[in-house]
Amino acid sequence: MDGTEGLFLHQPATARRPLLGLTVLVVEDSRFASEAIRLLCLRSGARIRRADSLSHAERHLRIYRPCVMIVDVGLPDGSGLKLIKDMANASPRIDVILGTSGDDTLAGDVMDSGADGFLAKPILSLTAFQDAILAHLPQDRQPPGPRLLSDEQVKPDMIAFHDDLSHVAQVLDGGQELAAIDYVTQFLGGVARSVSDPDLGAAVNALALRRSNGEPLKPQIAQLAALVQARLASADFM
């Protein structure tokens, strides 16, 4: 930890910036979801660090201990549930551990792994984000007095959505192994929900249904890939 970060961590929270002095480690492979959390941390006064995989998160955790950790369940090199369980059982324990996913049905698995709470994607509400963290912070890290509540919803730059689509296109181009398809459906399902893209979400759900039913996947993969390419070619993201 450098001197600048040391000074940051000792700043007291305020009513307007209730997470001032906290460092949040976000373990998330979606650039769009990460950008949303970055904006929420900025509005709240928290410092953010990002890891896009389990291995990257482990490198972060060998160097410093965050106050808050937000872990996506589906990561490119494994399940975030394992990281949540490991950190929940570590001593000393990180103050607040939250799991997140675009699949609400995973909330129980997140809590069973030892997390303090679950954040369903999209994570855009400033008040809900602050509540999820403050509810589990020790008393000495709470802001003094009532905090200022806001109905603000952050709006990440759509360039981050473009980056996520490019990532999916690369995964699909790299092969169509079942593990890759499972990752794509999990990842892109959360992204589609975050950007409120029902057509993309429907294509992802159709592929996931075929996968669960043991049906041929190539036609649906081709349809999804074409939809991703159409989004990438759209002038909205140029």
UniProtKB/TrEMBL annotation:
Keyword hit for Isomerase: no
InterPro entries, A to Z: Bact_response_regulator (IPR050595), CheY-like_superfamily (IPR011006), Sig_transdc_resp-reg_receiver (IPR001789)
BP GO annotations: phosphorelay signal transduction system
Pfam family of the protein (one): Response_reg
Residues the record lists as 4-aspartylphosphate modifications: D72
Keywords: Phosphoprotein
Response regulatory domain ranges (all copies): 23-136
Keyword Zinc in annotation: no
Protein name in UniProt: Response regulator of citrate/malate metabolism
